[in-house]
Amino acid sequence: MGRIDIPDNYPKGCNDGLIKEVVAKCQNKILRLDYASNVVLGTSYYATIAEQGNNEIHHRLTERLISNLEKSSKRQRELTWAIIVIGGLNLIAGLLKLIGLL
């Protein structure tokens, strides 16, 4: 059985693709070891490595989601103020037209 090369900076220093690759290799290794006999290392090491990778991917996705929500919320506030200003200007223009100044 081949050895899985795990980078020294795993998982925090790796890009998403590399983390997913290591996780997939570990999961495949676990499947093969579960069917093998006379395994010294067992599957717990590979399960731990895969779990660390999955946790890091989840953490990154959560951070991106929070960042996108914050940006969306800020944009929504800006749009709300723009709508209020435009509505106010329309109201003033309507009143001025009503009293005949426009």
Word description of this protein:
The chain has 102 residues and is mainly alpha-helical. It has a domain of 59 residues. Helix content is 74%, strand content 0%. The longest helix has 55 residues. It starts with 15 loop residues before the first helix and ends with a helix.
Tell how many strands the DSSP assignment holds: 0
Radius of gyration, CA atoms, in whole angstroms: 28 Å
Query: What is the straight-line distance between the termini?
Result: 86 Å
Measured by DSSP, the beta-strand proportion falls in: under 5%
Helix content: over 70%
Unreliably modeled segments: none
Assembly state (oligomeric): single chain
Instruction: Please trace the helix and strand order, writing H or E for each element.
Output: HH
For the residues shown, what is the average pLDDT? 87
Largest sheet: none
Number of helices: 2
| Principal-axes shape call | rod-shaped
In short:
74% of the residues lie in helices and 0% in strands. The chain has two helices and no strands. The chain has helices at residues 16-35, 44-98.
